[in-house]
Design a protein that fits this description.
Rossmann fold; globular; glycerate kinase, domain 1; 2 domains; six-stranded parallel β-sheet; alpha/beta
Length: about 450
Amino acid sequence: MSDSGRDFSQMRQKARDIFLHALAEASIAKGLARHVHCERGVLRVCEDLYDLHSYSRVLVVSLGKAGHTMVEALSAQVGASLEGIVASSVQPAAQLHGFRYFRGGHPTPNAESIQAASAMLRALEAQPASALVIFLLSGGGSSIVEKPIDDEISLDDLITTYRALVHSGAPIAEINAVRKHLSAVKGGRLAQAAFPAQQVSLLVSDVPDSTPDALASGPTMPDSTTVEDCYRIAEKYGLGKQFPQSTRELFERHAFEETPKSDDPAFHRARWWPVLSNQTAIEEASVAAERAGFIVHVDNSCDDWDYEKAADYLLQRVRELRRQFSPVCLISGGEVTVKVANGGVGGRNQQFALACAQKIAGENITVLSAGTDGVDGNSSAAGAVVDGKTLERARGRGLNARIAREKFDAYPFFSALGDAIQIGPTGNNLRDLRFLLAY
């Protein structure tokens, strides 16, 4: 390997190391340990105290990609006395005593998603005012726990509806606005079911900090979106013709019921506390990058942008920064959007990385884009890393970046190069991280 090739290889490894450090330090266990503590039966959640002995029952409802991991971390603090329901998209190595487990679908619901939602609604509706319900919420919950608001919507119709939403190119907040109004559990409806019990929600967030009720489509929070938003979003993205008949009819008849707002009695004895978010991962990545000798800048302004627009913007920023600082690491959190047409195997992070690879050919820039949940789209990778030599290396192996990008088939491309980020599901979900390194 030439010195130039070795330098590029070292930069790709540095980008991987920064990402892995951020994942380790922004773990569920460390996040809960910082914000949750239990001593002599008194549970402290951030600024609140709960005397667990004073309640007739303590029920834990955990849902999302971090469903099991969060229950494990809470049990480590409280002990083995907890009971409740866990719904996650992965099968845990071992289940905790006292909990019923469901393996819901992601990114689209499955039969166990509906079973989990029904079980949660039944359990919550049985709780009196003397009970405490602890909700543990993480990303992916929108599909992992689901029950249509209208029984006419079958599971197949629900899946078709979800696919239309996910592939529409709409940002997650707009997708979730529609999901909330289609659901018997989202948009505060789990909180309504739990009323009059006291409630506290711990959030491991994969949504923008400014819209916490978008997390898992806000099952325990007042909904900031309205039925009118749903009708507007459906028209904006031409969703009506993509939805199945059972869903389309609700839009055509304007038949949605409004979700509970902040003045609903369900929220009078409810609290919500973020314990981990994308910002946590960004801060930990910044520490790792500084230790590696980089001047660090953070720019999250391209959150929810189209992936190609985001690539152009961030590459322009890192080129500007490189003229003032060296070496520089530009960190960008949040998610980019990709409107998929007849896709292959990949995801938004690999699509973003592939776009960057085409734009930095020959330059001394390295780009890593990956999801903190360890899964990117329908691939087994979290994302990918590219640099100014990626296209040259690809041509040497008979790979065509342009075709892979056009077909939304980035994973086979990066897998063949050894540049896919393969870490497996992390049991966490704090949105995506992008690193642009330049000398």
